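In keeping with the milestone schedule agreed at the kick-off meeting, the structural modelling team has produced records for the first pair of proteins. Each record is given below as a sequence line and a structure-token line. The laboratory manager (R.T.) confirmed that both were archived under the project's standard naming scheme.
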Amino acid sequence: MKKLNKRITLIVFIALVSFVFPINAQQNTGTEKGLKPKEQSIVTIAASAAKGEQAILKTALVNGLNAGLTVNEAKEILVHVYAYAGFPRSLNALNTLMVLLEERKKGGITDAIGKEAKPLVTDKTKLQYGTELQTKLLGQPAKGPIYEFAPAIDQFLKEHLFADIFSRDIFDFKTRELITISTLASLGGAEIQLNSHVKVGIYNGITENELNTMADILKTKIGIAESNSLKTITQTIYKSKVTNEMKTKVEQNPFTLVYEGAITENVIGKVNIHPVTYKLNGIDIVANVYTPANYDPAKKCPAVVVAHPNGGIKEQTAGLYAQYLAEAGYITIAADAAFQGGSGGAPRHTDKPFYRIEDIRGMADFITQYAGVDDNRLGVFGICGGGGYTLKAAQSDKRFKAVATLSMFNSGEVRRNGFQNSQLATIQERLKKASDARAQEAAGGEIIYAGVASIEDEEIAKTPTDLYREGYEYYYRTYKHPNSTFLYTMSSLYDLMTWDATTNMDLINQPLLMMAGSKADTKYMTDQAFDKATNAKTKELFVIEGGTHIQTYWKPEYVNKAVDKLTEFFWKNL
């Protein structure tokens, strides 16, 4: 390499720089496991060095050396810190390390020296080589008006920070970003650069879980403000990432379907989708009708009504099952409930049993008039809360010749008693809230909502039950749709808490199939309802081995088992 006689004595200029680049690039190969002890020590060492907290640094160095950090690696962390926190902090930290090593040596502790950074050998100039490394680290060339405003800063960054420091082979890019992020978070006032380097870190393999672990370490070792700075930036980045992915998925599908394998166009000889609208009790209902590959409107074939889960819409799991059943030869319909999704009705997100049951009957009204449907061979299939409402609809509506549910959720029981009877002590209190909410609505006041409008990743991770933790992930992350929400009007509890899906189960005299995952924490609801179906013509409880409640919505190994069983059941009974 050609040596340049430039003496660079100030590197705090890095605080001026902000990078923009793709954070979901293929280079990110990190797992969702937390930081290893050695990596945890690196975070504390860098943070305390940047902060100038020598006592904390000394303890962190001891922990790091005991966890396998070599002397040269410890030196390298503190040398790297100087590029962001300045020479004084770096020199003071190196002095702390030097004194500590002498103390350990006198105490009979021999620390591994480790490998030294190999000298850089290249025919390229430092500017050329630094530019290459910077581009590799970011995933794309660094651009911005600040480089045009101050070209010298661009040159120093490339020639010194990247060609001199990042090129040293003791650490990989991921480790250097652990150091950089910890340093910037501890400095304060460098949020723009911290935001950029968190993205750089993600691109180079640092996971969301690892970033949250870093924030927890900062909270314990450095301070709450420093921790919150990193945590807030991490949450914002990932929320934006999920939102963009969701928008992409919705925008890429002309029918806004978000489930895997969804129809993207109608092709002759394959299952087709037909968006439809109709009136139900004066409310505009939007629905999708799926027709099988051999669909001929002049011929008659069986049909199945599909009721979506609580919080769900027709573009999610209800659509997935409707499409699969159409592939098996049925004409199917999945509609958004009144007041929810794309359907009309106000107040929005009203979730009352009367309307949810009417939604199912309304789908039956529409599909039995659809060309090619044999109205004497009509089945109904409900998922989650839609399963509970399906049971109630089938008790009185004998147009349904076969009844099936998946992961049935008794909305009335849960809203009344709490999930797994966890809110028995607050029933009267919650009824009072529902009554007050209704009174406020009647007076023309603001609509009060219950449920969850949005949730942070940390809250999701801490949610103890599979149903809600995986449900948040499904509805607010992996299969998010702008029309889907966990919200419902507080006044809906007025009706929900006095209702129960399993009353009058003896009125079901049709063939009945109830399915639930063996690991579903909601399975007790299916068991209770199944036992009460004493007059069903035939009944079967089909347990999907290994599946949880939410996994039966999307996971192929469980969905396929459910579809196979549904196909067998409906062909036998329709």
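The second protein of the pair:
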Amino acid sequence: TNCNKYYEFLGYQVFQLKDATVSVTDIHDPELAREVFQCDVKDGVTQLVNFTWSDALHANVPMEMVNGSNKGIQHTLRITEDVFATGDKRLINNKSYYFVAIAYGFNMFKKYDQLNGDNIDGQKEPYKAGRKSVAGSIQSIEVRPHKYEPRNNGTVLHCQYGDGVEVTRLEGLGTGDNYLKLTQVTHDEIMAGPPWKTQYPKYQPKYGPVNIKIVDPLNVVEDEFIIRFDTTENNMIFTNGFIKKGKWCIYKASEEAQIVRDSTGDIITFPSSTIWSDSTFLFNNEQLILEYGFTIKFVQVDIPMKKSYLDTIRDAKPVNDYIENNGFIGANFYFSDSSNYWLFSLPDDDDCSAFDWIRAGTTKDDNEPKCNDYPMTVMDVSGYPDEFEIYEDILSGMWGPFVLCSKDYYGHSHQFYGIGYSDAISGIFSDFTKYRIPGVDIYITKDRNKWTRCPVIEMCENDTTDAPDDHKEIPGPSQGNTYKFAMRRAPSIDKDGNFADTTQPGNLSNTEAPNYIFSRGMGWFPGYAIDVETGHRLNMACYGILHKILLMDLEILSWAESM
């Protein structure tokens, strides 16, 4: 059998021991040792079961060795309970507790199945525990919780374990698979007026594109640091611009890196304080920076909705082996008065009607193609971009990405009731590296100074001519005989709903005028949207059919955010 005889590192396990007499050889006896922490490489491998021969049963007996969290490698943990205590499990100050940590490896050259003759020669021990530490044999560690205040004749901490720090984006895009939240200062800078953006977005602690966590408050210093990302091998850059093997480094902002440009490109000389990452972008690894009291965790993640494409061009596996939740991180809805949930929507409904407006999934009906979910083909590779319908349930189906919206064609509505212009959706599908799915904050507010001027898109369905030999698309019964997806021909309105004089040209300077920008087809969205990755305020559009838009006096601030 052509088998791999080597084990690859997969993760760590930490066990609490009952007392000082227990050693690493006892970790699988629950009366003596109990697992309190586990982490492993984020690669889809979770539960590992070893099979050991039993003379009594004359069979190999399975034993679960680990059930991995599959969330990446961590090098810090917080323990607050005694798992051997009865009743109150809280740790007791100045009492000794004992722990042991081990690394473990993984090898599955062939899956073992004793009930299947073809797999009887498979791997019976996919899990292998480490036998040594960096200092020799694996020893238990004694830990005594205690108060920190008496240290150094009196100590006051200004942070706690697990706190985050404010992060400022200087260059680049992306989230690092983190939920992003802008600081209020950055938000106010963006909304202060033209150019409606900030050059350097700042993120709230714990909500930045790089996960920085305080782990030793006694070592934290007041300083600013620069994190820079760099490739290690030029030939490791993917055709779509993704860096497969690259590293990050961190150094004090007061010690600037020197950049020298020659005929071969930029040559960067890093300061003496530079600390380089232990692993590449591919591994979701938490790295200790103990001299400054914090850790850094950053991971390169794949492009949402393109797994079938990535599986093919990247040696049959994407950057991180799979994309968790198809790239969707999360969404939240906030109201200034949480007791008054006043905004509702028409949620997506998979019933092949006008309400089936998010086409996530794998539905394919040759008899009713208008009911189909949308496949994606890139470089002759076909697949469904959201086969598990992750994006169909954002805030109970209230929000969805434009690229998955039901679609029609301008002047050719063979799929009725679509809300997305087909050519625009197809263009996004063709290049997700350029047309990314951004994280956005969307606000609805009574502050009219922050409302967004929008083109109103005609949504009246097109009609057809009656002659059988001339059955072509014509505008439906829309105002001004306008095709679907064109700008509406109705008069534009101001913020009070007053109509513009359509005989007058657009006014480019007076934002309060009904004919601001154009005298036809313009309305107002009662709020605004911000791209939290770039720090830019976004343009918006409204869809409409009625000849008049009714405005209500908004007394409540609504805020939705999605990543």
